[in-house]
Write a structure and sequence with these properties.
Length: 525
């Protein structure tokens, strides 16, 4: 049992719940912007007079800038102070959001989105670290549940909110909505957020350059792959060469150099390594599914934006319930490895059920599958993060948080790229297979060889048949993606056995890393 003198936060604050509201508001608007702009792309293209290839950089620039900036979160937080960096990030994110809403051409939009990604990159890692630092060790699992809700639900609500704002207002409000929410968050952070002590760390220029080239080339390869027909283009081979070269040099650099961008102690903690691995898996499954479902429901099932939102809402409800349950079970001493394994199993079962969908699947089945999948992902997220930070020294939390968030971001990019590429390929294959079976003997109703006698009516019949073949082929392609993600999810379960059990019921703040109330009061605000 942890004594009261040990169960104190690293950075005590007068009003931790108010601070939590400010932190979560900042996290929510940043996570929302990873998906909220997707549905507004066609409207942006029309207003800004951009081609489809040009407007795709609106999404790519944000993702690339965020991926490149996120790894230096720990160094910047130590160098200028975590409070100053957090506040500056929120200010920069709000200003860049306003600029995105005011953009008059695609060049301005791409530049402002890159600025938005670069400033917003620090918010999630700093938010996660602040939630842990400012709460008692006995409450950290609960705080991770609250933080996880915003991270998991944000991508679900993004397309829904973006669609509603675009339809009822204007696509520019997709960005303007961040301004009032950001102002509320900023006011709370200025009033309540403490700062860690400033630590003078030498900036690892070589390490940052290698990581930056690696992440940039990876993101560009994933985001541009479909547009350039993958390795049929010399552009893709350039990205691959830069990716492999920088990865090879980065491994050597971080293994041999001193004072590197990331402390090697991070990679000596097995639970942290597995948490990063599982974060990639969560990014692949969660974001890939969220990329597939809205267009599938709208194009194949005929759902509107609101109906799509209602069908996806149970996924968020399931996530909320399981996160709170997982937080409670963790505090009561349940083995986190069992919770993670159960979560992946439940999520895999929901994907197995989705792999049996047809064009006749009703709303209740879609909603229930999402609810079950939300339950599974929520069960994974909390014990995974709690295990990652349970044995990690407090001084490494910001670096660790930035790497975990980066892992999830990379997973989402990889997952979305995989499923969209397979979707396009399987759609063509399925269409070819189905079309080959549409003959007069198969239909027993229409003799296609005689349709030319009916001229326009015959062409209309052929268009109807082709449209139905397209719908069926698309459904088969979606089901194939769900089936693949099912096996990817089930494959994660055995890896939980390799984790070491962390005692999360009675965590403590290690001696020498605890800041008392008076010390916290002396820190810069």
């Amino acid at each position: 049992m942890v004594g009261a003198e040990q169960d104190i936060p690293l950075l005590p604050v007068p009003n931790p719940m108010l601070l939590t509201v400010g932190i979560m508001t900042a996290s929510l608007i940043q996570v929302l912007d990873t998906t909220i702009a997707n549905v507004a792309i066609p409207h942006m293209q029309s207003t800004l007079g951009a081609t489809s290839d040009e407007v795709s950089w609106v999404l790519t620039s944000y993702i690339v800038a965020m991926a490149v900036a996120m790894p230096i979160t720990g160094w910047l937080a130590d160098r200028i102070g975590s409070r100053r960096l957090f506040v500056s990030s929120v200010i920069g994110f709000v200003i860049s959001s306003m600029l995105c809403g005011m953009a008059q051409n695609v060049t301005e939009m791409v530049l402002f989105r890159a600025l938005q990604g670069a400033t917003g990159a620090f918010i999630s890692p700093l938010a996660q670290a602040a939630m842990i630092d400012t709460n008692k060790p006995s409450r950290q699992a609960q705080m991770m549940a609250i933080w996880g809700m915003g991270i998991m639900i944000g991508p679900i609500m993004g397309p829904i909110l973006g669609g509603w704002l675009t339809e009822n207002w204007n696509w520019r409000w997709v960005f303007y909505v961040n301004v009032p929410l950001g102002a509320v968050s900023l006011a709370i952070l200025l009033a309540e957020l403490p700062s860690r002590p400033i630590v003078k760390r030498r900036f690892d220029v070589a390490g940052f350059a290698m990581v930056g080239i690696l992440l940039t080339s990876l993101q560009l390869l994933l985001d541009r792959g479909n547009h350039i027909d993958w390795f049929e283009s010399i552009e893709a081979w350039i990205y691959l060469f830069l990716l492999l070269s920088s990865a090879w040099m980065a491994v050597i650099h971080f293994s041999t150099a001193s004072n590197t961008l990331f402390d090697r102690a991070l990679f000596a903690d097995p639970n942290f390594i597995f948490a990063g691995f599982f974060s990639v898996a969560i990014g692949v499954v969660m974001f890939a599914v969220m990329a597939l479902l809205p267009p599938m429901l709208q194009r194949l099932f005929g759902y509107g934006v609101i109906d799509t939102g209602m069908a996806l809402m149970p996924r968020g409800v399931g996530t909320l319930l399981s996160m709170q349950t997982a937080g409670l079970l963790v505090r009561r001493g349940v083995d986190p490895r069992k919770l993670i394994a159960a979560g992946f199993t439940i999520a895999g079962i929901s994907l197995w059920e989705m792999s049996g969908w047809t064009l006749q699947t009703d709303y209740q089945h879609i909603a229930m599958s999402g609810f079950v999948q939300g339950l599974g992902m929520g069960l994974v997220f909390i014990p995974m993060n709690a295990s990652a930070f349970a044995t990690l020294p407090a001084l490494l939390r910001t670096d660790g948080s930035s790497l975990l968030n980066l892992s999830r971001s990379i997973g989402s990019s990889v997952g979305i790229s995989i499923v969209t590429s397979l979707l396009a390929r399987n759609l063509q294959t399925s269409h070819s297979d189905l079309a080959g079976k549409i003959t007069a003997s198969f239909t027993q109703v229409i003799d296609f060889s005689t349709l030319d006698r009916f001229q326009d009516y015959g062409e209309a019949v052929l268009r109807l048949v082709d449209a139905e073949v397209n719908r069926q082929a698309a459904m088969i392609a979606y089901v194939d993606d769900f089936y693949l993600m099912m096996w990817m999810t089930f494959a994660m379960v055995p890896f939980t056995l390799l984790m070491t059990r962390a005692n999360l019921a009675t965590p403590t703040v290690p001696e020498g890393e605890r800041l008392g109330a008076q010390q916290a009061a002396d820190l810069p605000h």
